[in-house]
Amino acid sequence: MFNYVVSELNRFNLAYLHIVEPRIQGNVTVEDDGNGLGARHFRSIYQGTIITAGGYTRESGEAVLEQGDADLVAYGRLFIANPDLPKRFALNAPLNEYDRSTFYGGDHRGYTDYPFLDELKVLTTV
Ligand SMILES: Cc1cc2nc3c(=O)[nH]c(=O)nc-3n(C[C@H](O)[C@H](O)[C@H](O)COP(=O)(O)O)c2cc1C
Q: Coiled coil: which residue ranges (predicted)?
């Protein structure tokens, strides 16, 4: 069914198709053999821009782009915990770890209190 639906989406000149890899269930990473209904599978079916998400690290995100399986990589949990995630990736800087217990919380904790690189006084020379 998904092959058919994705194939039909080609007719609509969409901005992108955003795929969540099967290694993700909700906000939890699960076992996956890499051969499921993800970006690699749909690349040959969908002709437009593909965004893939789901458990990517800096390295695996770069790898999926280099392999050509997707055009863009979306980051969820890492971005929640690292508001300056692109800068950290560019500098290969250490990441804040996310706190799952605050993902669905009702105040600033887990949303606006993760430190930026500069606050950590990390050496940022490239
Ligand atoms: C707080 C939070 C809430 C989420 N809620 C949903 C949701 O309602 N529906 C859904 O399909 N995915 C949901 N997700 C999954 C994300 O869309 C995304 O697929 C997932 O976080 C994988 O990307 P990541 O490994 O970069 O975090 C949620 C993720 C997080 C962290």
A: none
